[in-house]
Design a protein that fits this description.
It is a single chain. This protein has helices at residues 2-20, 71-74; strands at residues 58-61, 66-68, 76-78, 86-90, 93-97, 111-113, 118-120, 131-133. By secondary structure, the chain is α+β, with helices and mostly antiparallel strands. Strands 1-5-4 form a three-stranded antiparallel sheet, with no helix packed on it. Strands 3-6-8 form a three-stranded antiparallel sheet. The radius of gyration is 28 Å and the shape is rod-shaped.
């Protein structure tokens, strides 16, 4: 009987030590700040610098999640398009869509300069010098 009481106290004391030795609760540091802009995955994206380009959606894939901001002040297209275009984003992919009635000029070189419109999702670092030429 005395042995059972001793074991009970020993288990209770062991549990108390275990609970009191748990880690201190604090905020996680989060690691170093992300300063690298999103990089274009050229193998999965629509080929840049195409000749004889046929009007199609232009898909740009990145190495991290991205977001788009201020597209109508940041994105510049030369020569200008006649119809309203769209820029859509989903996870790591950005899609440039031409209006269905848009007619591209023959023998013209188009440049889409994205400026700082495409940014990484976590820190907002803009993609550097992102242009699509066709």
């Amino acid at each position: 009987m005395q042995k059972a009481g001793f074991q009970s106290i020993l288990w209770w004391f062991t549990g108390l030590i275990f609970v009191s030795s748990c880690a201190n609760i604090s905020s996680p540091s989060g690691g170093p700040r992300d300063e690298v802009p999103p990089m274009l995955d050229t193998l999965r994206s629509t080929t840049n610098y195409q000749t004889n380009f046929q009007k199609q959606d232009i898909e740009l894939y990145f190495d991290e999640y991205v977001e788009i901001k201020d597209i109508f002040t940041q994105v510049v297209i030369s020569p200008p398009l006649e119809k309203r275009w769209q820029l859509k984003q989903k996870l790591k992919k950005v899609t440039f869509q031409f209006h269905e009635d848009e007619v591209l000029r023959e023998n013209a070189t188009y440049t889409i300069n994205f400026g700082e419109a495409i940014r990484d999702f976590t820190e907002g670092n803009p993609a550097a010098d992102l242009r699509f030429v066709f």
